């Protein structure tokens, strides 16, 4: 065949392939109010009547798989859309079980790249960031490690059945895990261990802070363009946690503080003594607080963790507690009508954290 006839045929085939790919992918970037509301309705299926009271069940998604409990009382659910070829990975949040709370209070940081020895037969290798200064919450990483081993076969089966679009949803603890799961899946995709044409879109609802600033930078870069959101009720205290402590070691390498001590030493006596005293007064309290947090929420809590996970090996922690808000943040802003329905309460400390207030505010987003 003459090249002048062959080339137009190739171009036509390429166009057909592009069109089929576009048609196959139905997820769109950007925050979608109705998409989020429908996901909250689907998520309500996890809860007992006290939690999902007044929330209508989803008409769009049907459950096709619910995992057994694993790790620190973690579970996830796979749902398929009845309207298009989209699947949902729904990550359960904290339950009333003390083991579930262990995942939250095990709040030391570990490097965002490394491995966790979860059982004698299973080492979770992960790369959530290429930056050696990036670090994440160890408890939620343990949960992610157990869950992902069960999630990957279901993604593979769904993909082989023709599903390439996945919504990842978590509320509360589930939202924190959703960050780490998204990062892990994207890294597997980069390494060629997941198909390149898989598309993930993530909604971290009422999520606490998953890691430090350098992890946040990488997560936000990897999901830029409208592929991940952190939805926060401005009255909810949970997204303000874990407690964040910033020390001099948390700054970028180039900063005006690194050589401060050397600059102080060059000052004349007694000015150098006065400045040294001030410098120590400003820096030592946060350093001391960080060490205490790592001791109690790392070393000590790990002992309780190992009582539940007998073969878990305590990792080496990253010496930081600088947790930050992460992702493209969608703020649900309460007003007087909201507070009339959901007043502040010293007894009901989760009043603003439940699905009902989030759904109420989401439905009123403009």
Provide a brief overview of the structure.
The chain has 366 residues and is α/β, with parallel strands linked by helices.
Give a written overview of the molecule.
- This protein has 366 residues and is of the alpha/beta class.
- The chain has one domain: Rossmann fold.
- The protein has helices at residues 3-24, 33-43, 49-52, 98-105, 138-160, 173-190, 213-222, 260-265, 271-308, 336-341, 355-363; strands spanning 61-66, 76-81, 86-91, 109-111, 113-119, 122-127, 135-137, 165-171, 199-205, 228-233, 328-332.
- Helix 2 (33-43) runs antiparallel to helix 11 (355-363), helix 4 (98-105) crosses helix 5 and helix 5 (138-160) crosses helix 6.
Terminal residue distance: 58 Å
Strand content: 15-25%
Strand element count? 11
Backbone shape? globular
Largest sheet: 7 strands, mixed
How many helices does DSSP assign?
A: 11
CATH class: Alpha Beta
CATH superfamily: Alpha/Beta hydrolase fold, catalytic domain
Class by helix and strand content? alpha/beta
Helix amount? 40-55%
Number of spatially distinct domains: 1
Low-confidence stretches: 8-23
The CATH topology comes to Rossmann fold
CATH architecture: 3-Layer(aba) Sandwich
Run of helices and strands = HHHEEEHEEEEHEHEHEHHEHH
Protein name: Lipase (Class 3)
Signal peptide: 1-24
Domain Fungal lipase-type: 88-243
InterPro entries: AB_hydrolase_fold, Fungal_lipase-type, Sec_MonoDiacylglyc_Lipase
């Amino acid at each position: 065949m003459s090249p002048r006839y062959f080339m137009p045929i190739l171009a036509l085939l390429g166009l057909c392939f592009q069109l089929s790919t576009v048609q196959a992918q139905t997820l769109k970037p950007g925050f979608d109010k109705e998409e989020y509301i429908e996901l909250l309705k689907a998520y309500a299926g996890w809860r007992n009547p006290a939690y999902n009271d007044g929330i209508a069940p989803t008409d769009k998604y049907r459950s096709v798989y619910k995992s057994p409990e694993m790790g620190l009382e973690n579970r996830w659910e796979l749902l398929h859309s009845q309207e298009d070829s989209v699947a949902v990975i729904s990550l359960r949040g904290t339950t009333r079980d003390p083991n579930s709370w262990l995942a939250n209070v095990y709040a030391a940081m570990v490097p965002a790249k490394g491995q966790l020895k979860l059982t004698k037969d299973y080492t979770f290798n992960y790369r959530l960031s290429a930056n050696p200064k990036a670090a994440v919450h160890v408890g939620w990483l343990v949960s992610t490690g157990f869950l992902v081993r069960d999630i990957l076969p279901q993604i593979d089966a769904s993909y082989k059945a023709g599903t390439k679009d996945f919504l990842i949803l978590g509320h509360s603890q589930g939202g924190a895990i959703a960050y780490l799961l998204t990062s892990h899946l994207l890294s597997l995709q980069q390494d060629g261990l997941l198909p390149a044409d898989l598309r993930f879109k993530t909604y971290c609802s009422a999520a606490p802070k998953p890691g430090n600033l350098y992890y946040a930078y990488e997560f936000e870069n990897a999901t830029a363009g409208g592929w991940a959101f952190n939805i926060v009720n401005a009255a909810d205290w949970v997204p303000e946690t874990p407690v964040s402590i910033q020390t001099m070691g948390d700054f970028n390498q180039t900063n005006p503080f690194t050589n401060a001590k050397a600059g102080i030493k060059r000052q004349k006596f007694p000015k150098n003594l006065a400045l040294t005293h001030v410098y120590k007064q400003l820096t030592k309290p946060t350093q001391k607080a960080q060490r205490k947090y790592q001791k109690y929420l790392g070393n000590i809590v790990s002992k309780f963790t190992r009582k539940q996970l007998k073969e878990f090996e305590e990792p080496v922690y990253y010496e930081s507690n600088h947790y930050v808000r992460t992702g493209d943040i969608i703020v649900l802003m309460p007003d007087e009508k909201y507070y009339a329905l959901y007043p502040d309460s010293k007894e009901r400390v989760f009043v603003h954290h439940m699905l009902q207030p989030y759904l109420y505010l989401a439905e009123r987003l403009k």
